[in-house]
Every structure is written in C-alpha cells, then in structure tokens.
Amino acid sequence: MNPKTVRAAFELEGVTLPLTAIHPIRQVKPTDAAFGKYRTMLASIREVGVIEPLMVHPQRGVRGAYLLMDGHMRLKALKELEKTEAFCLIAKDDDPFTYNDKVNRLSLIQENAMIMRAISNGVTPEQIAKALDIDVSKIRSNFSLLEGIHPDAVELLKDKPISSAALRLFKKAKAVRQIDMAQLMVAANNYARGYADALIIGTPADQLTRGSKAKAVPGISHEEIVRMEKEMEVLERDYKFHQEQFGENSLHLNAAQRYVKRLLENAKIKRFLTQRYADLLDEFQELAALESL
Fold first, then answer.
1. Segment among 75-79, 208-212, 243-247, 259-263 with least mean pLDDT
2. Cα-based distances in Å from 15 to 68, 169, 217
3. 173 - beta bridge partners?
4. Which residues lie below 8 Å from residue 132, measured CB to CB, with a gap of 6+?
5. How far apart are CA 73 and CA 34, in angstroms?
6. Residues 89 and 11 sit within 8 Å (Cβ to Cβ)
7. 203, 225 in Cβ contact below 8 A?
8. Prediction pTM value
9. Cα 179 from Cα 242, distance rounded (Å)
10. In this predicted model, what pLDDT tens digit does every residue of 23-76 receive, in sequence order?
11. Domains and CATH numbers, the chain
C-alpha cells in the first residue's frame, strides 16, 4: 500500500472539551483487567497531567456531545481529581475496538529502562515513586534489577511478561546458561517464576555462579535432581537441534509448496491427476491452499 493513501484515524488538531460533554460507552469496574493500574494512573495524572489524550467521536444527533472511544480509566481519574476539562483527539470513525485492542503493555525490562533513563536525566526516585504511587524502595530496587544478567538474555526477554522474581533467578546461573534459560522461556512462552525455578533446579552445578545453588525441593532427593539435570540437558540439546533444523525445513517446505502450486496451474497435469491419482490431487490442493507452513 502506498503510504500516501493511508488515512489518519483522527483529526490531527486536538481540542479541549468539558468533561460533561464526554460520554463513556462502558463502565469502569473494579473487576476490569486493568483496574489494578488505576491508582498508579491516578497518581501520575495528579503529578504530571494526562500524557495520552482521550479519543472521542461526535455523538450523532446531539450537538456538542462526544462518545468516548478510548480513555475510560483516564476519564474516571480526571473526575476523581475534580478536573473540569480534558484535551482530546477527535476520531473520524466510531470504532472503539482498535484503540482498546491494539495496546502494547510495557514489560518489566522496558519499564526498568524508562525509570533508569528518567533518573539519569535528573528525576529523583522520590519523584518517580510519587508519580507512580508506589514505595520508593521499589524504584531503588530497579537499580540492580539487571545487574549480573547477560545482555543477550536481557535482549531476548526485553518485551516479555517476566516477573522480577523470575528475572532475579537468572543471577544464579552463569552467562551462557542465562541465555539458554531465556531461549527456553521464549520457546515455551512461559515466563513464570516457577518455570525459572525449574530451570535453575535442572542446571548443573558447574553452570551456576559461585555460591549459588538451586532451591531444595521437598520430596525430591539428590539423585532425582541429578537425573532431572541430565534429562534437562537432553531436552535442551534436542530443542537446539530442532531449532537449527526449523529454518532449513521451512525453506524446503515453502519451495515444495510453490512447486506444487505451479503444477496445479498446468491444466494437463491437473487433468492427469484427476483421472489417475484423485487422492494425491486432494493432498496437493490442500498443500497449495495453506497460508502458512
């Protein structure tokens, strides 16, 4: 698509509207998935104001009234803070789905990078804690969050929903093992502390940092842990082997699919297959119809 043909979804010039003219299209309830972040949002708006404008659309048949497409939490916070107006962007379509569905949540590592950058620019931990409505000790704990973790492991996990507890377990392992653990977490799409614990338990002693050891698990003997280490080693070796083969196999499969498509475009070949090998033709057609392999 030519970039020049892309139409903006909202008016480029924003407008300040009274809150009484903005009508939410849904209620914000304590059971909402994002409600846990509400107090943080409230504190942030109190300290620095609204950073992301509300998205509204003119209400049909009602002059001067607008439906709220995106920003229900922000509107609730503004009302609680007894604000009377808000800066808004005017949407050209009454589509609330896109704004609320296409949201990129900050991961722990991304949040840490933002906090450290703010501090390097002169913002104090106390100011950040006040703006986020959290204890200043949590801000200070970010100073050492990534210390001792290999940059390659951080790069693999930078946009993943890993917890600080799981991330700190990486410090028990040596650099190469940290990268292996990050790759396994990404492959399994599992970033829980329990999985990180299991990876540490399955890590041979010579791959742990000096003074570190896996947490003792009640009911599991030393011999069982040794066996788990060996099984984990085999599993990781198999995983890496198949990972290396995946790219080459995908290339071959895509080439085969393109070849089958060209065969089926030949009327004579298709007629021959229909008459002699109808079952094989069905398989070829299914292969050709696949959008992804």
1. 243-247
2. 14, 48, 60
3. 208
4. 40, 43, 44, 139
5. 9
6. yes
7. no
8. 0.54
9. 17
10. 998 887 766 655 567 777 888 888 878 888 999 999 888 888 999 988 888 999
11. 3-101 (3.90.1530.10), 222-289 (no CATH)
- CB distance 125 to 95 below 8 Å: no
Structure tokens at 120: 């390097």
**186: its two tokens:** 């990404």
